Fold this protein.
Amino acid sequence: MMFTTQMTQLFAVVLAGDKDRVTEALLREGVMQFIHTSEHTTTQSPNLNALEPRISKGEIADLRKRVEGFLHTIGIVPSTLEETDLSQRKAVDLKKEGQLLDTIEGERGSIRERQRILQQEILRMEDIQRQVNLYGIGLYNVNLSNRNSILSIQTGKLQAGLAEQLTAELKGLPALNIDLGLDGDESHHLVITMKRDRDKISRILDGLRWSQVEVTPEMLSMKKDLFGELATKIEGLSDEQKKLQKQVDGLVEQEADHLQELWTDLRLEELCQSIQDHFQSSSHTIIFAGWLPAEKKAPLQKAIAEASENRCYLEWAEAGSEDMIGSEIPVRLRNPKALAPFQMLVSNFGIPKYGTIDPTPFVMPLYLAMFGLMFADVGQGLVLAILGALGVKALKGRSGKEGMLQLAWLIIWCGGSSMVFGALFGAYFGYSLFKPLWFDFHGIVAGHSAADAAINNVYDILLITIYFGIAVISLGLIFNWVNLARMKQWLTLVFDKGGLLGGWMYAGGIYTATFMVTHGYKEFPAGNILFMLLGLPALLLLLKEPLHLWRQADDGGEKENIAMLCMNILMEWIVELLEIFSGYLSNTLSFMRVAGLGIAHVCLMISFATLAGMTDSLVMKGVILILGNMLVIGLEGLSAGIQALRLNYYEFFTKFFHGTGRLYTPIALNSKLQS
């Protein structure tokens, strides 16, 4: 877990006739990250060509996305392929399936057009209903009760045979046409429209030989509830809208089983094509190569042999050997699932170089310790943990939200850390409700801590963070030495500022500073000790550049003028010494921000408690404390998270981290979909 997974490389040759079965075996195993065999010098042959796909992968992906879109409309999210039986895979007729989707889309389009028209009609009716509600209409004299109404009311008659035509003509306008009844062969109507459409309505009515009349109370009594008429019509239109939506969903639901099977076949074909994109072919053979974890070697070898009926040639190369193809080795991080949020933090900074230390297991305790020291409160930590848990519940299982899900888990971890350190410092929503398990942080900041406590002033708190910083930087240096030794960079291991000499001087600086503090800043260590701690490693560092130039000379590098060479060596030595002393000093003192933010957190809580104590109203006191805690959780929580991340990135990672790796991403049944 401390180092990246050991990888091995496969170079394989199989018969062209076995390519599909071998492809399925590779997909089923799902452990191989493919590389292009053109990087292998022995395969540079004019007889080798990229394998031509049967079907365009772009067309497959486009059709698969269309199927996804249909399934999503009825709430179906295609399941993963991890349990899929590849022996049941069927070839997809893209033309036929495309026509099926076109047919469904066409029928859906016509229904949606009717839905659009209905929705416009509903909006028009609601507009009229709103005006009727605002201004009112006298039912028996059909007069507006407010001259400022934007409604226009007309009553009249036309030939009964033209009534349907009137309805059709008014359909495209915000109008309500109420049939008041028949008088012989004449149909009486009440037409309510918007005044802005008066000219259009007049042209329509004139074209239908409309006659304006005064409607008698007897005729209008059939339509006493005009507002109810509007509501009924809107309800009817809404019901029709729902029926159309059911028809739209029904078009997909009746094909749902087929569409899900189609999606599976398309996704399998897409993945197989992704594998075969890395194949090179001759007239009779297929060549491919890739990386996989060393422990997966035996199962994959067996799967390929069975798929090809032992008609294959497999050649294995260890990472870093002369036989491997290319120079870039993919990196597989192997951390427990519980560390996924902290692996996310590491990956955001970079992927560790193959063979070096993966800092994830160490980032977890360091990050949480930093956060807890800056944001120590049992109550506020509990709130953070609850918020994180709600986030996990909302995001779990949602595709494309993996990063947000890990962030929610990180908030839960941070909340737990706050609760632990809150108990150590005795902080519960800013109050000391119980005796602290370590020391009274709030009491120290407020100036009334116990005199006999081990930590009894702000300087002691600052000293804790300095010790913490020394431990973190020292751990980073040790990791750097381990990485350099594994990469066999011996010169850098000894002479670099992050190497053994740099660590020697850092340790000497720590001893010297401690000696001065314990002697009242009035005395240095003895001269011979000071020379051994700082002078000797500084002089040995002077050998770095000459040794580097000597190695270049052995490699055929250019000769330089001796005087200029000596001047360059001296200047680079001075600059590097300055970087070592100033860099390590600033790196160590940077951890004092942990104490600073912790003190600021306590000061804010003391301030809100003081404000709450200045009022006699229990309600106001509660409001002040609740708002104060909300502000502190939001601002201080965010600040503590950012500062803890910064200290990990810039004071810890920079000591050893080689973020030049490429993440191991094999093609498998559970591979992420391409957007």
